[in-house]
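REQUEST ID: PR-0412
SUBMITTED BY: lab tech R.K.
PRIORITY: routine
TASK: structure prediction, single protein chain
INPUT:
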Amino acid sequence: MSIAMHDWQVDAVLFDLDGTLVDTAPDLAAALNVALVQNNQPALPYETIRPIVSNGANGLIELGFGSALSSDQHEKIKASLLGHYQQNIANESTLFDGFEDSLLFLEKHQIPWGIVTNKPAYLTLPLLEKLALINRASCIVCADQVNHPKPHPESILLACKQLDVLPMNALYLGDAERDIRAGRLAGLKTIACTFGYIPDNIDFNDWQADRYIDKPADLLTSLQPLL
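STATUS: complete
OUTPUT:
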């Protein structure tokens, strides 16, 4: 089945993971602060860490430790941070409040939804399993399944291929410019999630998304079919 969104045909909906579909910031912030304390550095406030979470472990390390680390230091800290995160991957992470109704709506109308993330599979799959989402998603494409992660369109195109949908008839939601760029390059309609992990100085208009939503519940409003 397809859903008509004004002049859009929607045969599938794809989500970025961190900061878009799932609020993973609490657990990633905790992992960074563990690494900081282990290295005799002060922990950072959650509000400082949250906007950087979409940049992954490397972005978190740069936030906490600066950019002057040696390669060996960086890799040692990264291993520690990701090790702690892996062991505590869903202590506080949750589906963003308001998306469950959208997922149920899509499932009711047999519209497949999936996840396209720059997170590696060894962290993505356990998280989704803990959140009882792994068997609901019709496809899950992680960074280590492609040669070029976002903002390259390869991972989004792979998801469309797995779902057997035309990119022009799919949506991609993300909370970072690279998400919207990847979606646009792949030929999808794009929705920017302004509630995600976004620094205050970002101008969303620069992303050139097709639409913007300020809260997860806005997606369901947009998806309501004209039936």
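NOTES: The mean pLDDT is 94.
REVIEWED BY: pending
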